[in-house]
Amino acid sequence: MRSRIHTEKRKFIESVEAKDTESAEGSFAEFAKLIDSAANKGVYPRNTAARKKSRLHRMLNSLQGE
What we know:
The chain is mainly alpha-helical. The chain has one domain (2-65). It is built from three helices and no strands. Helix 2 packs antiparallel against helix 3. It is elongated.
């Protein structure tokens, strides 16, 4: 589970660096789904999952603001 989350996070960051908004939105949605699932299963504490989502969402918003 953690490996899938790290992979999706890496894909998201690559999309943001390439300024590919479409791909970044899709990657973020998949990341959010995986991190929520992991938090429900106890892989990550809820606050940790929320913090990870928040940080990536801020990156997505900065990309859309350009």
